[in-house]
Amino acid sequence: MAKRAPALPHLPPRGLSRTQAAAYIGVSPSLFDMMVADGRMPGPKHINARRVWDRHKLDEAFDALPGEDERNPWDEMRE
Q1: Model pTM?
Q2: What is the three-class DSSP state of 27?
Q3: 38 neighbors 49 (Cβ within 8 angstroms)
Q4: How far is Cα 52 from Cα 15, in angstroms, rounded to an integer?
Q5: Out of 12, 48, 74, 79, which residue is the most buried by the measure of CB atoms under 10 Å away?
Q6: pLDDT in tens, 34-67
């Protein structure tokens, strides 16, 4: 039988499923879908039939979201 590489439990996963990505940024999967659709969050990478979100890209997009005391350009688009 082929040997598997040892698991590395101390390393966080780089790729996240849709549900994991939503939880990672603290929103529901449906809100995450809306944020991907409107460009606030990145789209997934495709690995065979799977859609996987890059944790580093999620971090960059999350950092770009406005804080409570910052002007939110998304609010202006809705007006």
Answers
A1: 0.74
A2: coil
A3: no
A4: 5
A5: 74
A6: 999 999 999 999 999 999 999 999 999 999 998 8
CA-based nearest residue to 56, from 30, 7, 21, 18? 21
As a whole number of angstroms, the distance between CA 14 and CA 17 comes to 10
> Are the CB atoms for 60 and 25 separated by under 8 Å?
no
Question: Which strand ranges, in their side-by-side order, compose the sheet holding 45-47?
Answer: 15-16, 50-54, 45-47
Q: What are phi and psi of 59, to 5 degrees?
A: -60, -45
User: Longest C-alpha distance within the chain, in Å?
Assistant: 62
Nearest to 22 by CA among 35, 11, 12: 35
Q: What is the DSSP letter of 7?
A: P
H-assigned helices in 1-79: 18-25, 29-37, 55-64, 73-78
